[in-house]
UniProtKB/TrEMBL annotation:
The lineage of its organism: Bacteria, Bacillati, Actinomycetota, Actinomycetes, Streptosporangiales. Pfam families: ABC_tran (PF00005). InterPro entries: AAA+_ATPase (IPR003593), ABC_transporter-like_ATP-bd (IPR003439), AztA-like (IPR047748), Metal_Ion_Import_ABC (IPR050153), P-loop_NTPase (IPR027417). This is Zinc/manganese transport system ATP-binding protein. SUPFAM superfamilies: P-loop containing nucleoside triphosphate hydrolases (SSF52540). Coiled coil: none annotated. Keywords: ATP-binding, Nucleotide-binding, Transport. Belongs to the ABC transporter superfamily. Residues 7-230 form the ABC transporter domain. One of its GO terms (molecular function) is ATP binding.
Length: 230
């Protein structure tokens, strides 16, 4: 059975000012699957995530998305100072701002969503800890919970495994698989061949173009390859 499509990109060009970084990306992202965005430094992975997140407008091409919920762009733990005087729960609650506006008090429903999101990624027991007390892996999971608290059906992550040890990276890949099984579409940029191999689908970028059909750094890069069973 063919996977459903969450995102269809046709001829997406995007860049910064006069500089074009993406030169016509045509690709699909399957719904409720894990897609890895793979490519060397500077190949355009973060730029493509920005386009998918809606924070960078393409200069040409079209982007269609099933579902009407706003995508959640999950920050990278190395990009957010852990010295912020916030508890893990506060950080996850920030995910509700997208719904409420930061000036509104959280409702009981918001708090329930925050608690569920933390539960989902196994950080419920860390709720009262200060961010600065968390390991890199715990912090990254808190940020994923922040994305989940937005109740988005599309999570976009830029190198979530960066700077984490093997166990912590493994944990995150397991969480991705569980979320996908629950219907969440995941797109994550990665340098890690292991993480890319574990995804359901891969998009390989080279110098702002999609590479397809070449001898792959295993497994194949055909559209929508299915690996293993769910
Ligand atoms: N805000 C910006 N303004 C101008 N150029 C940018 C900006 N952000 C990225 N670029 C350029 O766009 C190109 C693609 O960068 P991008 O961050 O999308 O690649 P990447 O594949 O995510 O790389 P990395 O793996 O290093 O994160 C690079 O040449 C980069 O210098």
């Amino acid at each position: 059975m063919m996977d459903e499509t969450a995102i269809t990109m046709r001829g997406i060009r995007a860049g910064y000012g006069a500089r074009t970084v993406l030169h016509g990306i045509t690709a699909r992202v399957p719904r409720a699957r894990v897609t890895a965005l793979v490519g060397h430094n500077g190949s355009g992975k973060s730029t493509l995530l920005g386009v998918l997140a809606g924070s960078l407008a393409p200069s040409a091409g079209t982007l269609e998305r099933s579902g009407d919920r706003r995508p959640a762009l999950v920050l990278q733990h190395t990009d957010v100072p852990a010295a912020l005087p916030l508890t893990a729960r506060d950080a996850v609650a920030m995910g509700r701002w997208a719904h409420r506006g930061w000036w509104r008090r959280l409702t009981g429903h918001d708090r329930a969503v925050v608690a569920q999101s933390m539960e989902r990624v196994g950080v419920a027991d860390l709720a009262r800890r200060q961010l600065g007390e968390l390991s890199g892996g715990q912090y990254q999971r808190v940020l994923i919970a922040q994305g989940l608290a937005q109740r988005s059906d599309l999570l976009l992550l830029d190198e979530p495994g960066a700077g984490l040890d093997q166990d912590a990276r493994e944990r995150i890949l397991e969480i991705f698989a569980e979320l996908a099984a629950d219907g969440v579409t995941i797109v994550h940029a990665t340098h890690d061949a292991g993480a890319a191999g574990r995804a359901d689908h891969r998009l390989l970028l080279r110098e702002g173009r999609l590479v397809t059909g070449e001898p792959a750094p295993e497994p194949s890069l055909e559209p929508f390859p299915r690996q293993g069973q769910r």
